[in-house]
Structure formats: structure tokens, C-alpha cells
Write a structure and sequence with these properties.
The chain contains ten helices and 20 strands. With about 350 residues, the protein is of the alpha+beta class. It is globular, with a radius of gyration of 21 Å. Bound molecules: flavin-adenine dinucleotide. The site of flavin-adenine dinucleotide (FAD) has 33 residues, from β3, β8, β12 and β13. This is UDP-N-acetylenolpyruvoylglucosamine reductase. Pathway: Cell wall biogenesis; peptidoglycan biosynthesis.
Length: about 350
Amino acid sequence: MHSDPALQHDISLRPFNTFGIDARARLYLRVASDAELQAALADPELARRPRLVLGGGSNVLLTGDFPGLVLHIASTGKEVLPGDTTHVHVRAAAGENWHAFVQWTLAQGLGGLENLALIPGTVGAAPIQNIGAYGLETKDVFHSLTAFDPGTGTTMTMDRAACRFGYRDSIFKQEAGRHLIITSVTFALPRVWQPNLRYAELANAVAEQGFDAPTARQIADTVIAVRRRKLPDPEVIGNAGSFFKNPVVSAGQCASLLERFPTLVHHRQPDGSEKLAAGWLIDQCGWKGRSLGAAGVYPRQALVLVNNGGATGADVQRLARAIQDDVEARYGVRLEPEPVFV
Ligand SMILES: Cc1cc2nc3c(=O)[nH]c(=O)nc-3n(C[C@H](O)[C@H](O)[C@H](O)COP(=O)(O)OP(=O)(O)OC[C@H]3O[C@@H](n4cnc5c(N)ncnc54)[C@H](O)[C@@H]3O)c2cc1C
């Protein structure tokens, strides 16, 4: 068996998931570098275990105890690379905290990531669900990443096309890429920066502060202020951010829903489909602020499910299913969870 004294047995994962679910892991290892990661997986005893790669634990729902090895990615390091004529490249190790990385790029005088400020979690997890907020997604600023394949023991570089990014989706959530462990991510930030204020709520918040020609720093500060107002702090109340994806439906389905529900909140997509606001659907079904056992719907944002204290993964799942059933019965749309169920 792996002789690393850092290997822990039968520990609570409560400090390692923002929902604050008290599930246990059979084995837990924090890896602070790629070398440590590779050494752990070179051990046949550890490599054969069911594996859960964990970053900040801000997008997982632990539905029960984990019978295998939790590999907690805690590698650090970030650097500015030369890039090309139009973009500067910045690379960070997978275990770096995402928000601290965004702040660091701004401190280097590099704009481009500011709309994604204050999203919890690690740099390595950002490509997994192509994190997005306020009109920007990871894919828009992504250059490449490195990923370790435990099956072959090799590290590969993947560009944007190889990652198959979609709305809250990538190859790493699919069969073809689920086994890969992201070790670093490189972003391409524009040499000539322009604000991205396509998202109306952000544009209004920036205008309200009297910023006519906002800097990237000012946009980041505005995003942080808006997020603090709207979203629960996981340090105070357990949650994983938006619990459901916004469902995407055909233009025809949206039109027939609008006939019955004229105030339906929807956003046309570039391909003609329509994205419905999942929070609005949940709110209309009367779930905002309601609880089922120890799991509840956040009173200020119906898209966020919270742990009111002592909730299990099963409690959250029960609440999620009740919401899905109600929304489907009323609107004919089945909501899909955003976090990864473990
Ligand atoms: C308050 C709050 C607000 C949020 N707001 C947003 C938002 O605006 N937009 C948004 O998109 N998301 C949001 N999220 C969700 C979450 O922050 C992101 O999905 C984040 O990228 C998850 O990072 P993590 O390190 O915590 O991942 P984890 O929860 O640790 O892991 C998530 C998944 O990625 C896998 N994984 C993690 N690291 C690696 C790696 N290095 N290699 C391979 N697989 C890996 C895990 O196995 C798991 O399947 C929010 C969450 C919270 C709690």
C-alpha cells in the first residue's frame, strides 16, 4: 500500500464540499504537485480504487459515503507567458483558487476574466463545466490545458476543440474524457481589452455606479458586489451555486409556452433555440424559500438549493426531484442538475 503519510483513512468530506454534506471517504490524499499526483496513481493499490478527483468541492453533491480514493488537487503556480500578437497567455496549476487567480490576472494589468470573478472552486475545474457568468464562459478566454491520463500514465495538451465545450459542459463530463485529470490551464487574454457588458444586469450595475468607461478592475468589483447580494456564501450556508441548468428548448416549444405563460423568461440563442430561466420556472411553482427536511430553496434565488443544517445528499436529491417533477408537470420541461452527483 502507498506509504505516503499524507494518505488518510475514513475521513469526513464535510470540509471539502461547499454543500457541507457530511459524507465519508474511505481514502483521502491531498496532492500538492503533478509529481505527487503521478506518484499516487503509479501505486497499483491506489490506482485500482474507485476515484473522485476533488478541487474546491463547489460543484458536487455527495449522495453517500465514497468507497474509494478522494484525490484532492492542491497544486499551485501561475505565470504570464509571451502569447502571440493579439493575446497574452496566462497559465495556472489546477489546484489554484479560481477567484484568487482572476484577482492575480487583474493585478498583472490583464483584463478578460473579470466577469467570472468570485466563482468558487479551482482553476482545474473551470473547464469541466465551462464555467460561465455575466455573459462570459471559460471557452471564450481558453487557450489550452494539460491533462493527465491515469490509464496510460501520460500527460497531454488539449486545445479548445479537443475540450468540446458546451453550455455547462465539456468532454470532461462525458464518457470520452471523464477519466482525465486536468493539471494546468492556459488562458488567452486580449492585449487590447474591451469591457464585456452584454449581460444587461451587469451593464446596469456598472452604469449605476457611474462608470462610463469602466476598467476591468471596476467590472470585477461590480460582479463581486452583485454576486454577494444575490448568492449565499457557502461559508455561511451550504450550497453549490445554481443547482439546475437553464433548460434549452426549441423556438416552437418556447412559443407555445409563451401562449400559456406570457411572462415566461427566455433568451434567444445564436442557433435559434431558446434558453428558459430555470430560477423563474422554480419560483412560479412556489418553491422559492421552501424547504423539504433540512434542504431548502434559497429565498433570494430560486435556482440555489441550500443545506439548512445537517442535510444529507439524499435530502438534497429529494428536494431536487420534487422541484423537477413540479416544473415538468406545469411546463413540460425536465430540469437537469448542474452539480456532479457522486
Ligand atoms: C456560491 C456558488 C456560486 C457559483 N457560481 C457559479 C457560476 O456563476 N458559474 C458557474 O459556472 N459555476 C458556478 N458555481 C459552481 C462551481 O463554483 C464551479 O463549477 C467550479 O468550477 C467548481 O470548481 P471546484 O474546484 O469546486 O470543482 P469540484 O466541485 O471539486 O469538482 C467538480 C467536478 O469537476 C471534477 N474535477 C475537479 N477538478 C478536476 C481536475 N483538476 N481534473 C479533472 N476533474 C476535476 C470533479 O471530479 C467533479 O466532477 C458556483 C458554486 C457556488 C458554491
